[in-house]
Amino acid sequence: MSLFDDDDPAQAPVRNQSTGRNRWLAIAAVSVIVLFFGISAFAAVYTDALWYDAIDFSSVFGTVFWTRTALFVIFGVLMAIMIGLPAALAYRTRPYFHPADDIGGLDRYRDAIAPLRTWLLIGISGVSGIFAGFSGAGHWRTYLMWRHGRDFDKTDAFFKKDIGFYIFDLPWWHYLVNFALTGLILGTFGAMIVHYVYGGIRLTAQRDRFTRSAQVQLSAMFGLILLVKGLDYWVDRYDLVNGSGPRLDGMTYTDQHAVLPANQILLAIAVICGALFIFNMWRRSWQLPSIAISLFAISVLLIGMIWPAIVQGFQVRPSEQDKEKPYLAANIKATQDAYGISKDNLEVTEYTSQAEADGASPEQLNETASSLPIVDPAVVHREFEQVQQGRSYYSVHEPLDISTYDVGGKERAVVLGVRELNQAGISDSDRTWTNLHTVYTHSNGVIASYANMRGADDKSESSQMQWAEGDRTGQHDLTSGQGKFQDKVYFGEDSPEYSIVGKGDDSAAVELDYNSEDGETRTTYEGSGGVPIGTNFRQLMYAIQFGSTNFLLSSRVNENSEILYDRSPKERVQKVAPWLTLDDDVYPVIVGGRIQWVVDGYTTTDRYPQAARDSFASMTDDATQTSAGVQTLPTDEINYMRNAVKATVDAYDGTVTLYEWDEADPILQTWEAAFPGTVMPKSSIPKELMEHLRYPEDLYKVQRYQLARYHVSDPDVFFSGNERWAVPEDPNDDNHQQTPYRMFLDDGSGTARWSLTSAFVPYNRPNLAAMMSVDSDATSENYGKIRISTGFPDDTQGPGMVSNEFRTDKAIADEVASFNRSGSAPVWGQVVTYPTAKNGILYVEPIYARRATASTSGYAQLAFVLVSYDGRVGYGSTLSEALEVALTGASPTPPTASDPDENPPETTPPSSGDSPREVGQLLEDARSLFAQADEAGKAGDYAERERLIAEAQDKVDQAAELISGG
User: Fold this and answer.
1) Among 166, 414, 618, 953, which residue's Cβ finds the most Cβ atoms within 10 Å?
2) pLDDT at 178
């Protein structure tokens, strides 16, 4: 009699009803959860498809989506079969009668799982298949690179295989072998469990511990595992050219003479052991497989681990330089090729003009260095914001950018930023959903200043910012020749998450365009970058995607509405070209009457044979780097890099255009084959855009990092490390490398080249070792040419030494102390090392003063320009004055106060012939203007504040001229 026979029959229906109800409740709960995640997933995919369609990149979405789907299904089904089929076979071949000595208590487990047996098998296989499917889908890049891979037409130094094999083919073969090995191991483990539970394996039996069917199946599966492991050894041997070591990356002496032979021996042993397991299918004993597996384990230990350690310790270490020389030579050549720093792209010259330094005059140096950048883009960000932002809800992305524009027929370097929408500046009372997403949708305009602190004529120097583009009258030097200029910015680096645009039901414009003295101006977006959301279904999908019911309830969402999202330039380019690594520095250009964002895209890999592999973040780290990462690789390490693509994003309508740049790059060619029609040929780049393209900063920093070691081609010299360089630390931030700077550089030919430049110091020493510059003008035939200047005297100061000299100079220290006494804090700018072609090396560093107040509104203003030349230090309010002080010993002019909180400077009594009444009136007018500027600043009208400050400063200057008798 069973336990259930004792139950009260009257209660049975109640119990069954409750059980049934609970079952249906559980099913309903699971269904709701599945439905919730299913709808969310569908909304994400559906809205993604709409986004790609809106910007004409549907083919990218389709290729990625269907590739991922196919890989998910194929590898998911394969894994489910590899796990489920062995378990099912083990159950089908189970013994039907269990011997009396089956005392393991397994009957109760068999009885417990009997009702769920089929569902349990399906569930375990299905869940395993889902995980494997997601893994397969995650390897869509690996598959597409294998499917469309191109040859490099170069071979590695050891296996003599095309480099494309290591980059395109080998990763896919690794994945297939590892997948097969994982599936076979899990399938074997599952079959063993089933055999054990159902009596096919009886560990407590005195004899016949395995049934015949169990032995056949497990012998076959263990044999397959070992055969696949042998294949794994064959594939793994090619990884030796990408190994990592303390001295060098790639193949080493130990790898070639110990690890590689060991791999081949272990491959043979694995195949032999696998064959013995297969042969065991026809035997009743496990003696041969046991011997085989023991032999294999001992071989792995002795041949695979101990033998290479012996070779390294007793053959290589005593004479490492001689043993590793050919491998180091291969490493040097591969690294130079992989990073584009080979001799073909390198020009190394001896710097010889230092001898002429003694004869240089202030006028000569000032003329030579007239284009030198004085404005530090990393420091003046707040001045750009407060003087030119107009309203508190506008901001400028930090750091600012530096570029060149033709002004008055002359190429000028300008520091520029785009005025962007900053919704954090909107008052709390106005932060409604309607305002945030339908009213405050965009910003307006570009702000720019001349980098050398000289006006549009490029002659008159000033200690005040010289604006090239802004809000005030006459500040349109960059856009005046553009015709009708579209200054609206809907797509920027700091744009809001999403905005809903389009005419309302009454066709009235609702988007705030600009808030001026004449009142608010409204506009309606007319670009092509929005996704139409006029239907109820689309509104529902976006309500789910963004978690807001206002898509369904707000009257601002109607049949004319479009939604703008994924608005940052990097985000848009990354979505349409998910195979690119993007430069951290996105920069704006003014082209064709519009603002375009330029994004440099790189093809990278960590599989270039024998090349040095390093962290991308470490190589690009400096004081201004905000983020760095390689989204296309499993880790952040790379050993190959090309600037394959220049991408543009229209700031008004969000249009993304990809242009070929390095057309010879096989990785670019591979992705163009995978995504045909998405990358435009280089020849289609508009001429006006080409004039503003520049050498990318992250590529430069990676090449700079590698050139610190790999400028040496001789293995013996490289091994000794005596010629190793280092990128100097930023004098203002010891935790980061110094940021490279852009400037016009004369290489001695008489032509000023727009260049990206930085210094090298000897490893662990502060002196100047070399200068590295790259032609940054994309229209130049020498674009990308790397120029290295060496041969500096051993006592030549490096940037850190010069910075320390500035900080310890008594006169400069006294001025800095006066800042502190007056309530201002000094802000040190970038130390620029400027090797002139004829007059030696000039070092320049701006120093700014920022008023220390409880408010965060204070911004840094230029106080002095510091120079060091031929061991002489000078400072002044302008570069020419600083040079005059350094070379002649003249006294610098104290900086004039422009802070409205400060009184105008005291003056000496007027000399005979002056007009005291006129001087007094000028100073009184200046005091009044400073007070008005203070009020304008408190009201948030920073443009008016700057105008009043400038007018007041003019009054002070006029008074000073009268006093001095000018």
Assistant:
1) 414
2) 97
DSSP letter for each residue of 864-894: EEEEEETTEEEEESSHHHHHHHHHH-PPPPP
> Which tokens sit at 644?
């394959």
Answer yes or no: pTM beyond 0.70.
yes
For the chain, the straight-line distance linking the first and the last C-alpha, in angstroms and rounded, comes to 123
My answer on whether 204 and 251 are in the same domain is no
Give residue-wise pLDDT tens across range 228-262: 999 999 999 999 999 988 889 999 999 999 999 99
Domain encompassing residue 360: 353-364+701-888
Q: What pLDDT score does 9 carry? A: 41
Instruction: Look up residue 459 and give its amino acid.
Output: K
Nearest to 443 by CA among 385, 476, 490, 479: 490
Residue 72 placed within a domain? yes
Bigger pLDDT: 3 or 510?
Answer: 510
Query: Token pair 């006028």 is at which residue?
Result: 363
Domain boundary among 188, 209, 230: 209
Identify whether residues 855 and 949 lie together within a single domain.
no
User: Quick one: pLDDT band at residue 594, thresholds 50, 70, 90?
Assistant: very high
Number of domains in the chain: 6
Give the pLDDT of residue 699.
97
> What is the band of 353 on the pLDDT scale with cuts at 50, 70, 90?
low
Q: Are residue 327 and residue 359 in the same domain, yes or no?
A: no
Helix axes 58-92, 117-138, angle to 10 degrees: 150
Report helix angle 916-938 to 942-963, nearest 10.
160
Residues 756 and 726 in one domain: yes
Cα distances (angstroms) measured from residue 702 to each of 450, 568, 798: 29, 24, 21
Among the listed residues 147, 135, 141, 144, the one whose alpha carbon sits nearest the alpha carbon of residue 72: 135
- pLDDT for the residue 824: 80
Residue 51 resides in a domain: no
How far is it, in rounded angstroms, from Cα 149 to Cα 730?
A: 41
Run of H or E residues at 562: strand 562-565
Same domain, 832 and 912: no
Predicted confidence band at 108 (pLDDT cuts at 50, 70, 90)?
A: confident
Is the confidence at residue 6, as pLDDT, over 50?
A: no
Give pLDDT, residue 4: 35
Classify 564 as helix, strand or coil: strand
Residue 49: is it exposed, middle or buried by C-beta count within 10 angstroms (0-12/13-18/19+)? middle
What is the pLDDT confidence band of residue 3, given thresholds at 50, 70 and 90?
A: very low
Category of 823 on φ-ψ map: left (φ > 0), alpha (ψ -120 to 50) or beta: left
| pLDDT recorded at residue 337 | 97
User: Domain for residue 565, yes or no?
Assistant: no
Confirm whether 647 is domain-assigned: yes
Whether 790 and 762 map to the same domain: the answer is yes
Domain's final residue, options 493, 515, 544: 493
Cis upstream peptide for 399 (omega within 30°): yes
Closest of 334, 161, 338, 323 to residue 253, by C-alpha? 323
Quickly state the pLDDT bin for 721 (edges 50, 70, 90): confident
Quote the Cα angle for 116-119-122, to 5°.
145
Contacts of 133 (CB under 8 A, 6+ apart): 71, 72, 73, 75, 76, 79
Residue with tokens 């680096």: 493
In this predicted structure, what is the pLDDT of residue 28?
84
> Would the pLDDT of 283 be above 90?
no
CA 279 to chain centroid: 54
Q: How confident is the model at residue 24 (pLDDT cuts 50, 70, 90)?
A: confident
* Whether residue 769 sits in one domain with residue 830: yes
Contacts of 659 (CB under 8 A, 6+ apart): 645, 646, 647, 648, 679, 680, 681, 682, 684, 685
List % helix, strand, coil for the chain (3-state, nearest 5).
45, 20, 35
Residue 320 has phi, psi (to 5 degrees) of -60, -40
Report d(CA 478, CA 482) in Å as an integer. Answer: 8
Q: Tell me, yes or no, whether 879 and 905 share the same domain.
A: no
